[in-house]
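ARCHIVE RECORD
Type: protein–small molecule complex
Small molecule: cytidine-5'-triphosphate
Source of inputs: curated submission
Record status: active
Notes field left blank by submitter.
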Amino acid sequence: MRIVLGVGGGIAAYKSASLLRLFTEAGHTVQVVPTEASTRFVGIATWEALSGHPVSTSVFDAVDTVNHVRLGHEADLIVVAPATADLLARAAAGLASDLLTNTLLMARGPVFFAPAMHTEMWNHPATQANVAALRSRGAVVMEPASGRLTGKDSGPGRLPEPSEIFAAALAAAAPVGAAAGRLAGKTVTVTAGGTREPLDPVRFLGNRSSGKQGAAVAEAALAEGARVRLIAAHMEVPVPAGAELVQVETALELRVAVHQAAAETDILVMAAAVADFRPGELAENKIKKRDDGADPVITLVRNPDILAEAVQRRAELGSGPALIVGFAAETGDGTSSVLEYGRRKLERKGCDLLVLNQVGRSLVFGQDTTEVRILSPQDAPGTEPIAVAGTKAEIARHILDRIADELDAPLPSH
Ligand code: CTP
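STRUCTURE (tokenized, with ligand):
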């Protein structure tokens, strides 16, 4: 593979020498493109000697080979390590201020960033927004490692070990199983997390969804070679590297994002915990305690059922996702079992598969392990689908296997 190794101006630049070695020893051709600032940490001579190729920071060197266009075009993979806050900002803004940022703009293949900076810089909303923008365009941005930083401080911001960057970058270039991925060439849209319904500028109605299951489904779909779009409401876990992120807050925002995505989606997985109700009115200003001591009254209105709508729109338009998958969390009660409630929900929503979770007070939400049964309208009456227990990652792989099986089998016309 032809790899461009971009080196940002941070103290961790020296670690990229080991990364370069790992790439070259694995048989890859590496062109190093440092930023001007990084050459204060590691000089050009080091990169030329280790890579065996001439190295420059500027678009005005080797102009005859049109380096600033060629490098990005020809690269099978671009890895930026360390990616400083400044470099992430320039890449997110689309600046072309040196050879490396030109190369990033000309990239045709996967782009991978391994950030390194102080914790405050990493956590700063500006950096987080830049990371989100890069991820939404399909770049892979690793989470930095935690530990001792350059000064006396410690926390997230350390450059991950070269061996970790090496493995993750190659995985980004060819997602695990992508060659034989059962979903190669397919687009999967996953909704995840819990919606937040605002009451006033500071308060909202939310739920306990962590987004773990949706994130795990997105990750499993990436591993099967799919293009993955993650429509994320509030999540407590990171967005899987490689997924295109659409950030939403409310059920109504999620609805717009889902219907927009549906036209170019093969598989829609509705793992988000969508609020069934929202406050009827959004107060413009913070709701204050009343002087007369009266309790406030909040009127709730129904949110649309997005999953049912997606099924209905597919029928009306005669196009849309080949497979629509819903989730249900049920406790069962004196009148009906978990399975009976699941079957009724499957019928009501009209989706192609329903992933049924049994929930109790401490079960499922935020937990790492869970137990599911996958229901289909094609199930023979009276049969009980087998329950599969495992971590959310294992459950996600089970769901993706079932999805791939359904796509392989001739589908009933919708
Ligand atoms: N869902 C949706 N829109 C809603 C509510 C839920 O698209 N307004 C989706 C969820 O993403 C999930 C499935 O519907 O895939 C089941 O959600 P659940 O909350 O269990 O179903 P409800 O219809 O709310 O049923 P219940 O009466 O049990 O609350």
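CURATOR ANNOTATION: The CA atoms of residues 134 and 407 lie 31 Å apart.
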